[in-house]
Input
Amino acid sequence: MKFKTVDHTGKPLSAEQNHAARQRWLTQRQNREQSLSSQPKATKGKRMSAFGAAGWLFEFMLKKTRLDNKGKQNARTFHVKPINLFLDKLPRGFEGYQILQLSDLHVEFYPDLIQPLCDVLNTTTADLCILTGDYQDSDATPIDEVMQPLARILKNIHVNDGLLAVLGNHD
Output
């Protein structure tokens, strides 16, 4: 699969512009990782925020009711959900055009979901794939922990017209 980087108007970037954009992103990412790794970690006895307490209570209740296992089982069961759109002004060339959209993969958060997702993707075909961000759960995660599972996922995407991707608020 070949990737093209485009500007905000959709015009492809030159090789030099593409390289510069990747270098800027990599530098920003490395600076962010470095600043997060130098921040002090939470210590025992530190007060928990109300949001953190609510999350802890929710997780505790799920475990006590054994609903956490059902949720994990549901998360491991991927389904391709076809959605038919009928648009009056759609050019005829796009009739039957299939778009595969993947979002909020958070690959380092549930590593045991990567293989089931790859299995489903390997049997799915489309004309175009759109990745709509949040490939990771935390921007404190080292980039290699995100890129390796993401590369496995990308190898199992089979599309005719390519792949488009944007970053999300967690990336």
About this structure: The mean pLDDT is 81.
